[in-house]
Specification:
This is Ribosomal protein L18e/L15P. This protein is mainly alpha-helical and about 240 residues long. It is built from nine helices and five strands, in the order ααβααβββαβαααα. The model has no long low-confidence stretch (mean pLDDT about 90).
Length: about 240
């Protein structure tokens, strides 16, 4: 019994590869006696028998590849964004269940919506929709990336406030992780700058919106700084056009 136990014990001394997992290297071009001499397994003539014949996957011998024969339709829009929609009815339902809460000091962001299970993916940002506005009874404060006009009207009619804030991928990731050690992103594309500076969109760069909010707890100082810089830039642009 002792000898059997010693043989079955695994150690560095008796480790070996599994049977059939290793093969001897095929040595070609070593004469006819090795059965791999002469053409060395390449056969007689042909493209693959020549040295330097690097044939790429999909190569069809020189004729037009099938990928080029098929017509192409449409294009990929590099600036397209996919918003994660959330309805007011769903937000109210989550508040009733106690899974969501908000206040002027701590508004609802993508982090709260994701971790509460109200949404399952943030995609490129959150968009609040006005579906089920008649079921909204709570006074909510929320900072999404987008909001429909009906949602804005319903939230403000109940005494709440919605501010659309710009998020790039890194800023959205920081929002979900709760990081506050980095400076929040600012829009760089002209289209985004113009959208977030309009009051009807409740953009965080709108001077009218910031004036209306005043010293609300959730208003960041960076919003006011960016809005002032945008106002100076617009004034310079207007002066140049006037000249």
């Amino acid at each position: 019994m002792a000898s059997t136990a010693s043989r079955s014990r695994i150690s560095l001394a008796n480790l070996s590869p599994a049977r059939g997992s290793l093969h001897k290297q095929k040595r070609v071009g070593r004469g006819q006696g090795s059965n791999h001499g002469g053409t060395a397994g390449r056969g007689h003539n042909g493209q693959k028998s020549r040295s330097g014949a690097g044939i790429k996957p999909g190569f069809e011998g020189g004729q037009t590849p099938i990928t080029k024969l098929f017509p192409k339709r449409g294009f990929v829009n590099q600036n397209e964004r996919v918003w994660a929609p959330v309805n007011l009815e769903r937000i109210q339902h989550w508040i009733n269940l106690g899974r969501l809460s908000c206040s002027p000091e701590k508004p609802i962001t993508a982090r709260e919506l994701l971790f509460s299970g109200c949404i399952h993916d943030i995609h490129d940002g959150i968009k609040v929709l006005g579906d089920g506005a008649e079921f909204l009874t709570s006074q909510i404060y929320i900072t999404p990336s987008r909001a429909s006009k009906s949602a804005i009207r319903a939230i403000e009619d109940r005494g709440g406030q919605v501010v659309c804030k710009y998020y790039n991928p890194l800023a959205l990731q920081d929002c979900v992780k709760g990081r506050t050690d980095r400076i929040t992103a600012a829009p760089t594309r002209r289209q985004d700058i113009m959208w977030y500076s309009k009051f009807q969109n409740r953009g965080f760069l709108s001077p009218d919106l910031l004036k209306k909010l005043g010293d609300a707890p959730f208003v960041e100082e960076r919003w006011k700084l960016l809005s002032q810089q945008l106002g100076k830039w617009r004034k310079q642009e207007f002066d140049v056009e006037k000249k």
